[in-house]
Amino acid sequence: MNFKLTEEQQAVKDAARDFAQSELLEGVIERDTEQRFPAQQVRQMGELGFMSMMVDPKYGGGGMDTISYVLAMEEISKIDASASVSMSVNNSLVCWGLEKFGSEEQKQKYLPRLCSGEAIGAFCLSEPEAGSDATSQVTEAIDKGDHYLLNGTKNWITNGNSASIYLVIAQTDREKGHRGINCLIVEKGMEGFVVGKKEDKLGIRGSDTHMLSFTDVKVPKENRVGEDGFGFKFAMGTLNGGRIGIAAQALGIAAGAYELALKYSKERKTFGKPISEHQAIAFKLADMATKIEAARHLVYKAAWLKDEGEDYSEASAMAKLYASEVAMDVTVEAVQVHGGYGYVKEYHVERLMRDAKITQIYEGTSEIQKIVISRSILKD
Ligand code: CAA
Ligand code: FAD
C-alpha cells in the first residue's frame, strides 16, 4: 500500500491551493453575503483545467485521475465551497456522464465547451416531489418520433442560471417505471425552457440554485444520452462518481475550518497562554485532525477504486456519508475554538459551518447513503 502522492498529484494539489488562495479567497465573504456566483473565477477554473480534470485531452480535458480531482476539490473547498460545487457538478456529473455514456457526436459537440470554461453544465434530476425518491419523476419526455416533447419542473438545480448545457432526467414511459426514464441534453435558449426563481440558502450562497421549468420543449432525439430507457441508470451511475466529488468537498470544508482553528488557537491568549495550551482546546484539535484524516482515507480510497476500474458505489457512499458528518462536526468545533470571533463573518468559520450542512443533503442525503451502503453489504 502506497500513501504517497505522485509528483503530478502533488503539483495539482499545490496549483489548486495557490489558485484558491490567490483568486477565490478575496471577495468570498461578499459573494456569500450577496449570493453572487463566482462567474469570473469559475471561468478561470475552466481555463486552468479544473472544470474537466478527468476528461480525455482529445476533447479538451486534463486526462487526470480521480485522485488528482479530489485533491483539487479538497483545496478549492477549503476556501470557497460555492465555487467547488460548480466544479464538482461540471466534472463528475456532466463531463463524466457525457464522456462515459454519450455518443461520439455528443462528446464532440459539448465536451470542448464544457472543458474550456466557455460553458458550464447542470445535472437535473430532483423535482419538487422527487428528491430522494428519484424514480418518481413527474417531468415527462414524450416520444414524438424525431424529438421528445419535454414538460415539467426541476428543483434545486446547481449552476441553474450560469449553465448553458443541462442534462435533464425525465419519464418517457411511465408503465416501465425506472426503465422508462431518459436523460436529455437541453440547451439554454430552447423554446419553452425557463430558468425560474433562485433559492435563498443557508450556505453555499454563492452557488446559483434555481428551479427550472420546461413547457413543450422540443428536444431532438439525438440529444438523448444512451439507449431508450437508460436515463435512471445514467443518473445513478453518474452519481456514484459525483458523490466522491461531494465527499471531497466536505473533506475540504472540514480541513479548511481546522486549519483556521489551529492557527487561531496558537494566536489567541487567555489566562496568560495560547488557548492551544488549554487541554480542552488541544483535545478538540486532536479530535478534528483525527476525523479529517479518517475521512480523507475514505475519500481517497473511493477515488482510487474508481481509477482502478473497481466497483466504487459502496465506497463513494461511505466516503460521502462520513466526510459530510465530519464536515459538520469539525466546522461546529472550529467556531467554538474561535469563541465570539467565530460567530462573525470576518473569520470565515461560520460560513464554512453553514456550507458544511449541504454536504449531508445533496447528491443523496445521509439517510440515502445508508440505504446504498446497507443494500450493498447485505447483498454480499
Ligand atoms: N449505481 C448504479 N445503479 C444503481 C444504483 C447505483 N448506486 N442505485 C440504484 N441503481 C439501479 C438499480 O440497480 C436498479 O436497476 P435494475 O432494476 O435494472 O437492477 C435501478 O437503479 C433502481 O434501483 P432501486 O430499485 O434500488 O431504486 P429505488 O427507488 O429503491 O431508489 C435510491 C434507489 C438509491 C434511493 C435512489 O433513488 C437514489 O440514489 N436517490 C437519491 C437521489 C440523489 O442522489 N439525488 C441527487 C441529485 S443531484 C445533486 O444533488 C447534485 C448536487 O446537489 C450538486
Ligand atoms: P426528501 O427526499 O423529501 O427527504 C426529506 C428527508 O427524509 C431527508 O432527511 C431524507 O434523508 C429522508 N428520507 C427520504 N426518504 C427516505 C427513506 N427511504 N429512508 C430514510 N429517510 C428518508 N438536485 C439535482 O438534481 N441537481 C442539482 O444540481 C442539485 N443541487 C442542489 C443544491 C442544493 C443547494 C440543494 C438544497 C439541493 C440540490 N439538489 C439537486 C437536490 C438534492 O439532491 C435533494 O434535495 C436531495 O436529494 C433530497 O431530496 P429532497 O430535498 O426532496 O428531500
TrEMBL record:
Q: Which EC numbers characterise this protein's activity in its record?
A: 1.3.8.10
Organism of origin: Flammeovirga aprica JL-4
Chain ranges of the Acyl-CoA dehydrogenase/oxidase N-terminal domain:
6-118
In which domain of life is the source organism classified? Bacteria
Q: Which residues form the Acyl-CoA oxidase/dehydrogenase middle domain?
A: 122-217
Name any cofactors this protein relies on: FAD
Q: Which InterPro entries match?
A: Acyl-CoA_DH_CS (IPR006089), Acyl-CoA_Oxase/DH_mid-dom (IPR006091), Acyl-CoA_Oxase/DH_mid-dom_sf (IPR046373), AcylCo_DH-like_C (IPR036250), AcylCo_DH/oxidase_C (IPR009075), AcylCoA_DH/ox_N (IPR013786), AcylCoA_DH/ox_N_sf (IPR037069), AcylCoA_DH/oxidase_NM_dom_sf (IPR009100)
Keyword Flavoprotein set for record = yes
Give start-end ranges for the coiled-coil region(s): none
Name any one GO molecular function: flavin adenine dinucleotide binding
Per its UniProt record, what Gene3D superfamilies does this chain match?
Answer: Acyl-CoA dehydrogenase/oxidase, N-terminal domain (1.10.540.10), Butyryl-CoA Dehydrogenase, subunit A, domain 2 (2.40.110.10), Butyryl-CoA Dehydrogenase, subunit A, domain 3 (1.20.140.10)
Describe the family membership recorded for this protein in Swiss-Prot or TrEMBL: Belongs to the acyl-CoA dehydrogenase family.
Which residue numbers delimit the Acyl-CoA dehydrogenase/oxidase C-terminal domain?
Answer: 231-378
Could you list this entry's UniProt keywords, alphabetically sorted.
FAD, Flavoprotein, Oxidoreductase
How is this protein named in the record? Answer: Cyclohex-1-ene-1-carbonyl-CoA dehydrogenase
A Pfam family that the UniProt record links to this protein: Acyl-CoA_dh_M
Q: Which CDD domains did the record assign?
A: SCAD_SBCAD
